[in-house]
């Protein structure tokens, strides 16, 4: 339980910092459900976390009927991540000195690492990440690769509200997120963090 809670908090905090410290600073988009939350935030100034919660509801209904273990494992993830995203947004510092490219890479990497370490404990932040987990149980592809596809679709959906430069930077951020997620979910982790009998290579597709 302690390992689960620490993984949940650290993963959600990394995701929250990546969004609020790096993405919103330069009007960048992320993929998946977070991307939709950012689009709503840029258009109507709605809280990103709240949007994620609302949009995740249909996916959770589907998970309840067909993938109930994922429903239970990701429920805490979507709630904690949404709350942390909106809470961290209140204390985001001005990191504009890093520049847009560095922010896109670093922010995307933080999201990928945060999501990846949670996937290693079967925790999802909900939305399209949860959908990717469910799909990964049916087809022989790494969950990180599936997320990249969903993420790119979300970036395309936001083309009308960002500049060409922001689209390029958002694409770089999404790729950074996907690469970090694939690395974290595919590479062996220390035994004291993730017991070997819990992860028999199921992410190594």
What can you tell me about this protein's structure?
- With 205 residues, the chain is mainly alpha-helical.
- It has one domain (2-198).
- It contains eight helices and no strands.
- The chain has helices at residues 2-23, 32-44, 48-66, 68-88, 100-119, 127-136, 143-157, 164-186.
- Helix 2 (32-44) runs antiparallel to helix 3.
- The longest helix is centred in the C-terminal third of the chain and has 23 residues, at 164-186.
- The relative contact order is 0.19.
- Its main location: membrane.
List keywords for this structure.
mainly alpha; single chain; disordered C terminus
Counting DSSP H or I runs of 4 or more residues, the number of helices is 8
Gyration radius, in Å = 16 Å
Number of strands: 0
Instruction: Report the β-strand fraction as a percent range.
Output: under 5%
Helix content: 55-70%
- The end-to-end span amounts to 28 Å
Largest sheet: none
Average pLDDT number: 82
Give the uncertain stretches in residue-range form: 195-205
Q: What sort of overall outline do the alpha carbons produce when their principal axes are compared?
A: globular
Return the structural class.
Answer: mainly alpha
Tell me the series of helices and strands, N- to C-terminal: HHHHHHHH
List the helices and strands and how they pair.
Layout: H1 2-23, H2 32-44, H3 48-66, H4 68-88, H5 100-119, H6 127-136, H7 143-157, H8 164-186
Main location: membrane
Pfam family, one: YitT_membrane
InterPro entries: UPF0750_membrane, YitT
